[in-house]
Write a structure and sequence with these properties.
alpha/beta, Aspartate Aminotransferase, domain 1, Aspartate Aminotransferase, domain 2, 2 domains, 5-stranded antiparallel beta sheet, 13 helices, 39% helix, 19% strand, globular, binds 4'-deoxy-4'-aminopyridoxal-5'-phosphate
């Protein structure tokens, strides 16, 4: 019996069923490679779900964490604050879009960053309504799942959602929702369901992650900025997946030319250590009462040290430019594959920087989704040594999330595995 089979059995017996996993049990990882309990080597195109943008165990991140561990690992920032947190807030205030006074709070997970951004928007506006988008993902806490624009598996069986959270359509040309359609629906929501004067915030991912790597057109983000300005609504960019150089710019919103009022960050922020942040307009971040936001582990010193090193690496290794280069190479190769005869299952290749995806269809005329083919390709790739993730509201999108530090030879090796895996799965 393989180690993976044994560990799978123990996992099923001991770990909550709702925590779903696949069968790759990690024992070691380095930059873009991961080795499992059976000694199998993988190229990691999941990067811990867009966390290891700087690769597994970047030497500078490891050194920063080791150095911090020699000093202290936890004091609780509310009890004995430390300079690293303050310095990180200063850096994030400078790095996020918008030329206005900003402040930052640190927490631990993406969902917590989202929760706190909503609390700030509510405290600042004195309103409670929130508009999110269909297909969006914002976390698994009570508010996070309510904001998430997908019922199964995220909301199913979990009871009543908090009130005054509404969803508008996300523009998606491939699925026939134009930018004008999406804006029209938002206006109709204001006419039929909620007075815009009751809306505290609009929250949007500039590139939807779990929802299928759908890219919000720059014009749409600019229109949202106008709507928010007109009605005094706080515009929140959820950059948990799209941020930290992934799209070829520091943040997805940087491509639009407009600044959100608040930005949520997590995942790539600390290169594998649990850390998240809300950064934005000082007066909004300052709206909650002292003591109203924070937490025991919020801004953990080891994670803060890691994050400083991550920001240094993004700057010194020019990872924004590298993300753009990786993205160009991925899309060129995927488009070549899609143009081949027999590859009609590839409905669309899309991406922004190094956030790329293929949408798999049963029929190019109707774009009917092919979820079983998608699962088969992911399995074929795994058998050939490549970790891929699927996503999409219709379970038919494969996302490519290599570390931005991946050697180009490994990138090409992985793209060849993808080609072979599609060939094997369509046969
Ligand atoms: N927002 C977005 C855009 C995400 O992609 C995710 C995680 N996939 C979250 C929020 C939630 O982050 P976490 O799992 O760290 O709570």
């Amino acid at each position: 019996m393989t180690e993976a089979v044994q560990l799978s059995a123990r996992k099923s017996a001991a770990v909550a069923r709702g925590v779903s996993t696949r069968g790759i049990f990690a024992v070691r990882a380095e930059n873009a490679e991961l080795w499992d309990a059976d000694g199998r080597r993988f190229i990691d195109f999941a990067a811990g779900i867009a966390v290891n943008n700087t690769g597994h165990r970047h030497p500078r991140v490891m050194a920063a964490v080791a150095e911090q561990a020699q000093a202290f690992t936890h004091t609780c920032f509310h009890v004995a604050p430390y300079e690293g947190y303050i310095a990180l807030a200063e850096r994030l205030n400078a790095a996020t879009p918008g030329d206005f006074e900003k402040k930052t709070m640190l927490v631990t997970t993406g969902a917590e960053a989202v929760e706190n951004a909503i609390k700030m928007a509510r405290a600042f506006t004195g309103r409670s309504g929130v508009i999110a988008f269909a297909g969006g993902f914002h976390g698994r806490t009570l508010l996070g799942m309510a904001l998430t624009g997908k019922v199964a598996p995220y909301k199913k069986g979990f009871g009543a959602m908090p009130p005054e959270i509404m969803h508008a359509p996300f523009p998606n040309a491939f699925h026939g929702v134009t930018e004008a359609d999406a804006l029209g629906q938002l206006e109709r929501l204001f006419a039929s369901s909620v007075d815009p004067d009751r809306v505290a915030a609009i929250i949007i991912e500039p590139v939807q992650g779990e929802g299928g790597f759908n890219i919000a057109p720059a014009g749409f983000l600019r229109a949202l900025r106008d709507i928010c300005d007109r009605h005094g609504i706080v515009l929140i960019a959820d950059e948990v997946q799209s941020g930290m150089a992934r799209t070829g710019r520091m943040f997805g919103f940087d491509h639009s030319g407009v600044a959100p009022d608040l930005v949520t960050m997590a995942k790539g922020l600390a290169g594998g250590f649990p850390l998240s942040a809300v950064t934005g307009r000082a007066e909004i971040v300052d709206a909650p009462n002292p003591g109203g936001v924070g937490g025991t582990y919020a801004g953990n010193p080891l994670a803060v040290a890691a994050s400083h090193a991550v920001l240094d690496v993004i700057r010194d290794e020019d990872l924004c430019a590298r993300a753009a280069e990786i993205g160009d190479r991925i899309r060129a190769r995927l488009n070549q594959i899609a143009a081949r005869q027999g590859m009609e299952c590839i409905g669309e290749v899309r991406g922004l920087g190094a956030m790329n995806a293929i949408e798999l269809v049963a029929d190019r005329e109707t774009n009917a989704p092919d979820a079983s083919l998608t699962a088969a390709i992911v399995a074929e790739a795994e058998a050939r040594g490549l970790i891929l993730l699927s996503c999409g509201t219709r379970y038919n999108v494969i996302r490519l999330l290599p570390p931005l530090t991946i050697p180009m030879a490994q990138l090409d090796e992985a793209l060849s595995i993808i080609e072979a895996s599609i060939e094997a799965a369509v046969m």
